[in-house]
């Protein structure tokens, strides 16, 4: 029961007690007052009647007629004339008739009991007899009841007014308490908000304690986040350049080759600069600044061309050699030329090192060592030939004609118009191998053959059709859920272009809003890099989807999770650790420490942690120790074609 209702109940009890007490006191007091007044009236009436009777002839008939006339014209209950010897000369009485509006309980308890008025009737110098007069009390009882009703009505009005006034005052007084409740509820969602201290002493103490708890909780989580980020940086990054080190990049490469869609155009760029005039032997602080500027030029270039690929990773492979991995790349030639120009811009002074570049495409049958050797051999050849342009693998140099572009546009537009999307679904299992949800990937038929997303994504992005393709896939999932009545959940990875398209998002929210049951079985994800790059848009995306009962997750997590501000307030349901951290999970203690700390932090936020890129099924004990809640299976591949 709310405190307002309790207040109303208390006021009702107080008013009822007040009414009962007031009626009782008023009734008793009035009864005594009326008894005194009516007794005085009886004495006065008896004295006046006795005086009149004393002056009359003592003829019994005349006396009786006179008494009868007085009885009829007055409000009397009885008049009795009795001689001195006890003989009754005249007696008139009538039974008291209560007003029909007066309740019996009131008359039984509060009717006045009035003594009769007594006066002596004389005859000459002697006593003739005694007259007894009693007034009718029914009119007094009726009057008392009317006064009591007015009292009850007045007290009831006072009670109702007091209730409304007290309720308003209570809401004003406990308004800070509502804020404290919201603050406590926000703690459940890991939102550590601060409140202004109210004036009420008791509430001020509560708010102060809650604010202290919020401050300390946020501080502890920030410290844990910083510690985790520092540990990851020390083990996975090169301090001088600020990018990934060789070991970490090889893990990324292994994950890409083992668990990513091999149909996509994924490219490895090698950039090498020469010694120049003793560049690598220059003072450490100067060398560090120049290398950081060099990396920043590359990052700026990639940011400028981010619409031509999905993900990018940069690493320092050797002192003078950097590697760049781009996934789902469109027009690798243009990107490589832009990167080469950025590198030349960084080393444009006299005596600066020369820059060489090689670009190779990841093949389905590549191992990480074979891929690195191929890229290394090409850059060695470029350096030997002193090439001024990037040395690009021939398979990436294919000319993109307008006819080819129109063909792709037609294929993808037909898919969107006809809702011709199918999905490949990989089960996500918890630590006990129970199904959590399916990881769904869109399949599109190109030239009569069903292709996975890597094959067409770069074209769909280039043509501006990727958001529509993804919306078509989500619509197909909703239709599948509705048509099959399945209870399974389906997760779908949304691209950066999808999340940043207001028109597409409006259609998505409408679809979800009109399919509430299916919405509860949808899990929409974005990449960690996308969420980091567009935090405000991602926060709005999360807030809207959570309000519609959809689950929200982050995929390919680990590299920049700590850069997400107030991640605990976004309502994330789960994250999926990038496969790069799973590649060497058996014998990489640094990854163990990072994953254990990451899982601890995520669980503090109420977020589940699933591992991507797991091929072996004998890691259950290790995952339990690390705190991983489940895995994205790459063994039990289940395909659900939505048009079946």
TrEMBL record:
Native source organism of the sequence: Alteromonas macleodii (Pseudoalteromonas macleodii)
Residue ranges constituting the EAL domain according to the UniProt record: 405-644
InterPro entries on file: Cyclic-di-GMP_PDE-like, EAL_dom, EAL_sf, LapD_MoxY_N, LapD_MoxY_peri_C
Domain of life: Bacteria
Keywords from the UniProt entry: Membrane, Transmembrane, Transmembrane helix
Database matches in Pfam families: EAL (PF00563), LapD_MoxY_N (PF16448)
TM helices/strands, residue ranges: 6-28, 151-174
UniProt protein name: Diguanylate cyclase/phosphodiesterase
PROSITE patterns found in the cross-reference section: EAL (PS50883)
Keyword Metal-binding: no
GO MF term set: cyclic-guanylate-specific phosphodiesterase activity
